Amino acid sequence: MTRNRPTSLDATIESPWHDVGSSRVPSAVYTDRAIYERELDRIFYGPHWSYVGLEIEISEPGCFKRTAVGERSVIMIRNRKGEINVLENRCAHRAMRFCQERTGKVKTLVCPYHQWNYNHDGKLLGVPFRNGVKGNGGMPADFELEDHGLNRLKVAVRNGVVFACFDHDVESIEDYLGPDILAAFDRTFDGRKLVLHGYSRQRIPGNWKLMMENIKDPYHPGLLHTWFVTFGLWRADNESRLELDRHGRHAAMISRRSEKVVSNVEEGVTSFRKNMELNEPLLLDIVHESWWGRDTVCMTTMFPNVIFQQQVNSLSTRQILPLGPDKFDFVWTHFGFEDDDAEMTERRLRQANLFGPAGFVSADDGEVIEFSQEGFEQDKNFSTLCELDGTSVGPADHMVTETLIRGMYRYWREVMEL
Ligand SMILES: [Fe+2]
Question: How many CA atoms lie within 13 A of 165 on its CB side?
Answer without folding.
Answer: 19
